[in-house]
Amino acid sequence: MAVVTHLIEGNQEVRPNPTQVEGYVQIVRDAANETLVHLSTWGSKDRQSAPKQSQVLQFNRQSARELVEFFVRAFGDEIVSGSNAPSEVRDG
Length: 92
Known about the structure:
Elements: E1 3-4, E2 23-29, E3 35-41, E4 55-59, H1 61-75, H2 78-81
Parallel strand pairs: 1-4
Antiparallel strand pairs: 2-3, 3-4
């Protein structure tokens, strides 16, 4: 597990992943009371073993801003201007 502090655009030769998983997101606070967004996956439904947490990333304010910028570049402005975001993931 790690807190992502900065995103750098990569140039690796990557392909789409062959499996799909559900992601779980939570808003948490660190020891300094700074907000983090915690994102985890629990493996695919076709997993051979019992379900277990597969990947975990936490984003601080800076890396979250950078990630949103990448989402906008990939999917357009409507990705952040739409009202389809579940209310339970908004930090009021």
